Amino acid sequence: MWDGLRTKLPADVPAGQLTQVQATLAFPSAVGTYILRWDLVQEGVSWFSGKGVRMPEQTVSVQPYVAPFFGGSLGVDQTPASMGAKLTMSVPVKIENMSNFDWGSNVNLSYHWYDAAGNLISWDGLRTPLAGTARTQIAAVNAQIAVPATPGTYKLRYDIVQEGVAWFSGQGMQTPVKTVSVIVPPLSALYTAPATVSGTPNATITVPVTITNAGATTWQPGAFNASYHIYIPNGPLFVWDGVRTPLLAPVAPGQAVTLNVNVVVPAAVGTYLVRFDVVQEGVAWFSGQGVPMGSATLQAQ
């Protein structure tokens, strides 16, 4: 084949300048091994190869088309029977790739929410990447699940999606369903914090954190404080009992407050993960009650 498909340049390319394109290819209809040569053409004038420009080439193996099979096995037994309203939960899930293709960057674990009668409440759940899971491979992931805001009984249906192609459930895969009671627990919180904070070693910095009372208990100053824990990224706990930042006034259920949370920077230069947590003194850390913590990357520099 000589006259290949054209891929337009995105703009004029001055002499000496590079550009990048996504080339459109039409493969031969017959199975076999071919030499693919790349060429530029000035339409109506000449091919660059006709002017002595060397054509880069590569060997291409054309294989028979195999229809994709969308399959997988999901182990979701660790799904909590109850979840706090409005929270984003992290649920351990075991997954086996039973498709006839390796899962790339466009394959994600997701879910759908239904009410107790089976009516769809929310289809497009948060995504948890499954990239790099090869055929027959078993992987363990933490599914990120946004819980409905209204208390009640729901059905959580796990699913896998190849973005822009298909949901696996729509291709015949059986997907597990778990019944979940969505409640407003006594202690619950939502956190909004900067993505990254920094400070000099041993210094005390303040981090603006907005904390919403997502539970049923009013937080009273003195009894409740904002605090934090520090971790090595992808590693162990470094500091558990962070300094306390007091509330300035009671925080009622549904109310949000922004605090300048005091954080002591570790003595060693490096990158850490600081996780924000509310504590009811002498009773419980909220994270110990299953409430996800807020987080930020902490640079000690």
Overview of this protein structure:
The protein has strands at residues 32-37, 41-42, 46-47, 57-62, 72-75, 82-84, 88-97, 107-115, 120-122, 128-129, 138-146, 152-162, 166-167, 177-183, 189-192, 196-199, 204-213, 224-231, 237-239, 245-246, 256-264, 270-280, 284-285, 294-300. It is extended, with a radius of gyration of 27 Å. It is an all-beta fold and 301 residues long. Strand 18 (224-231) and strand 19 form a beta hairpin. The strands form 6 sheets. Strands 6, 8, 9, 10, 12, 13 and 14 form a 7-stranded mixed beta sheet that branches. Strands 16, 18, 19, 20, 22, 23 and 24 form a 7-stranded mixed beta sheet that branches. A 3-stranded antiparallel beta sheet has the order 5-7-11, with no helix packed on it. The chain has no helices and 24 strands. It has 3 domains: 1-65, no CATH class; 72-183, Sandwich (Immunoglobulin-like); 189-300, Immunoglobulin-like (Sandwich), CATH 2.60.40.10. The termini are far apart.
Q: Major sheet, described briefly?
A: 7 strands, mixed
Which CATH top level class of the largest domain fits?
Mainly Beta
Give the name of the CATH architecture of the largest domain. Answer: Sandwich
Please state the average pLDDT score. Answer: 96
Distance between the termini: 59 Å
Shape: extended
Structural class: mainly beta
Query: What does the radius of gyration come to?
Result: 27 Å
* Strand portion: over 45%
- How many domains? The number is 3
Could you tell me the number of beta strands? 24
CATH topology of the largest domain: Immunoglobulin-like
Poorly predicted residue ranges? none
Which percent bin holds the helix content?
under 10%
Secondary structure tally, helices: 0
SSE order, one letter for each helix or strand:
EEEEEEEEEEEEEEEEEEEEEEEE
